[in-house]
Amino acid sequence: MIHVATAPSAHLPFDLLAWGAGIASTVAIYRWRLHDVARSVATKVDGGYFLFLALGAIPGAWLAGSFNSLREHAPVLSHSVAGALAGAILGVEIYKALRGVKGSTGGVFVGSFSLGVVIGRLGCFFAGLPDDTFGAPTRLPWAVDLGDGVGRHPVQLYESASMALFLAVYLLGLARRQPWAMRRGFYVMCGWYGLQRFSWEFLKPYPRLIGPFNVFHLLCLGLVVYGWVYYRADRRRERVAQGRALSIPRPDHQPL
To answer: Measuring CA to CA, which residue among 154, 191, 156, 198 is closest to residue 170?
Structure first.
């Protein structure tokens, strides 16, 4: 068992670092690869896009987090990254439906969200037991003692490492200008984030909601389905657009 020095105050500096690094990564990736994609999205949306995003993300974060924490042995209000993401998606998709906007508009947020989770979960880890994101007890060699003498799964590090892996693959995809990264990176990110967190939720002592599943299992399953369905829909639109481009009639070549 590995003993870890923790302090609730450790969360704030990691949160600030996550926000700062996220903003910096958004600017860097925009200038490096996504400026044309972002400009195309900007022609389809207005300020209402960010209003709907906020109106979904903020209540989504607190509703999901509090729905879980209020059912624990010591009920408290809390917020959740998964809830914020799901709420933001709902808000933006409502906005897009009202405006008739098709395709992904979240590409510029992929790097910042992923990097934010990588750094933010480190803050959760070093904040210790008061953060209430600790893992279930285990006897594995890498179990961590966060201050109560119990060996636990370092689920925060599992999630941080998982999103770091995704971020590395995503940046490689951008470097190679692969369509999944350039056009549909947000959908892939939602699917990966949902899948990896769905797995780690089995290693947390959260109250169950349906059978072996807690509220975050259901949220993450929804993110996986969303990413898969919208990814396929965008691929279909791309194929249809390519087919139309190839079928444009051209004048026959006339020999001289």
So the answer is: 191
